[in-house]
Amino acid sequence: MKAVAAGAASLAPFFDERSGLGRDADVRSRPVHGGLQQGDTPGLYGGTGEAAICDVEQLKRYLAEPRNDRKARAWAEALDLRTDGIPEYLDRLTPVLLRHDTLVKNHDYKKGKAVPFNALLQAGIAILVDEQGLPAVKCSCGNPLRPFEGDKSRISVSFDDGNEKWKGYDRSEVVVVRPASHKLERIALVDVEDPDRGVERPVGTTGEEDTAFDTRKRQAVPSLVGTTFGEASRRLAGRGLAVAYDGEDVPPDGARVTASDPAAGAELRFGAHVTLSVAEDTGASGGGATPPGPESSRETKDPGPPPSSSPPSPPSSGPAKSERPGSPGGTPGDTSAPAGSTPPPPPSTGSTPPPPTSPETPGTGSPPPGSTGSPPRTTASSPPADDPATSGAPPPPAGRPASSAPATSVSAAPEAPTTSAPAERPRRTRE
Question: With DSSP H G I counted as helix, E B as strand and the rest as coil, what are the percentages for the chain, rounded to 5?
């Protein structure tokens, strides 16, 4: 792993570092929650109020010059592009500054070929990122970048060739960027010279359309229990909040969120992390419908392990984009309606089975996510079909928590079948 310091010249760059393609900045690496960060993480990258840090048009001209034809072919091959697709590709990239020491696969240009090598880029290096927030080009020399694919915990960094070990280097704070689960429309940056100032930059622009915002303004954590991890990530990013999670890799987008820390309603400043607990479920549908009855009956199955402050109440309206600059608020793509519309209510030969035992019944079509191997705590299974609660309110509306008054109107639905169970089918229900 070769260290690449901000401002240090590359030994075999695609283009001369002195040509003005990009300018690095003096930035101290920031502590980060976990080593893997998704490309839409608010505040992952930085910006500046000064002139553009990358000259994308000049790089485009260099790669189009006939004398650089061989270099352009090597450059395009490293990024899995055709040479005639280079201009369009560059138009979709966005210049940013690294706020963290970041692992990438870098490329030297040697003997007419792009030669890959693993590199640790120092915070402050100017790069271009693609539409999913992945590092794509090192600005100062035009070197193409690809995602780091190794084991972050087993790296050994070599500080040589003029790349002296920089002040503040901390191996535990090194970052690996994973692609956002969707294409970004804008990127929420932090001004590296004034951390209280945020910069919202539309993807594919170089700074001329930036808008500023106050990073000190607090946003409420939306209700996320029952949503998928991918949807929860988008909702948090829409409010300028970052995602953290337990485990060594990013959970699958389809995994159901069972709890958030802090819980729904907590107010955090821009870039703060919210830790999500998930039940491993990659199924795209049926995920949350543990109970077989109407969707309202799900509230009777909440034994309470998830924090009571993050109830599975379906939120009402999407995150107001005007409140939180950042990557686009997630589409309300939580279409997983409760699977209970197909199976009949669980008739029983007696009136004793309490509601919590219903997950044991294997007879319905698709098993509820998280119900095998997870205690009933996965009441996250109530997939809210709407967008998160409006960002202004502290805790989400308290009108539907499982432990409060709604139980009088909700619990009646699943109880009713036990007193009027049809007599003609008593034997099929106890398999």
Answer: 20, 20, 60
Distance CA 303, CA 273 (A): 27
Mean pLDDT of 144-164: 88
Residue 65 and residue 301: Cα distance in Å, rounded? 67
**In 3-state terms, what secondary structure has residue 47?**
strand
Per residue in 220-274, pLDDT (tens digit) is: 999 999 999 999 999 999 999 999 887 678 889 999 999 999 999 999 999 999 9
* Residue 371 to residue 17: CA distance in whole angstroms: 56
Element (H, E) at 74: helix 69-78
Among candidate residues 93, 119, 104, 102, the one with its CA nearest the CA of residue 45: 102
Burial class (CB in 10 A: 0-12, 13-18, 19+), 4: buried
Q: Which DSSP symbol is given to 345?
A: P
In degrees and rounded to multiples of 5, residue 412 shows phi and psi of: -60, -30
State yes or no: pLDDT of 58 exceeds 80: yes
Alpha carbon 271 to chain centroid, angstroms: 12
pLDDT in tens, 91-119: 999 999 999 999 999 999 999 999 999 99
Q: Which residue has the tokens 């040479």?
A: 83
